[in-house]
Amino acid sequence: MKQRLVELVYEKAFKYSEEPIFKLVSGRMSNYYFDCKAVTLHPEGMYLIGNLIFDMIKDSNVKGIGGLTLGADPIANAVAYTSYLKGKPIEAFVVRKTAKAHGTMQWIEGNVEKGDRVVIVDDVITTGKSTIEAINKAKEAGLEIVTVIALVDRQENGRENVEALGYKLEAIVTREEVIKLYKDRNE
Question: What is the CATH number of domain 2-186?
């Protein structure tokens, strides 16, 4: 499943240019880009992601999985669906980018509450800024973060920045694995 997910990321999400034409969230320019929604919203991608991450966390005694909307949402949903099918339900939750402006005015949506053990997920980690934002909002809500998982690690200090906060970050796919596949198929 892992190898197929690497292939799917390469086929559907990876963009490459000899010149740095891709503007990243940080404002930096890069010669490659990962548009992971093309994988996280794809039926096979959901199946692979749901199973791979569920297998990673199934024995962690977690109540929920989620992260900053929009990148984390399909990942958390795939894992929640898979967890139910496998008889160990894990709730999906969403960390908003801004607090809800009406009603309960919450930052976190879903069936998790103070004291619950959770996993934070993100589709791509570069510097770790959005992942850290999700971690901070989850902590403010009183959630206990067990681990952090990224679908793709661009290997540009995001892991180190998250781990500096005391959380382990696991990546399903690394930039290195996708670049190797790119070179294998284009040389």
Answer: 3.40.50.2020
pLDDT for residue 101: 74
Q: What are phi and psi of 6, to 5 degrees?
A: -60, -45
Identity at 76, one-letter amino acid code: A
Residues 122 and 72 sit within 8 Å (Cβ to Cβ): yes
How is the chain split into domains, by residue range?
2-186
What is the predicted pLDDT for the residue at 62? 98
Could you give the angle at which helices 73-85 and 43-57 cross, rounded to 10 degrees? 70
Q: Residue 22 belongs to what H/E stretch?
A: strand 22-23
- At 32, the pLDDT band (50, 70, 90 cuts) reads very high
Phi and psi at residue 33, to the nearest 5°: -150, 145
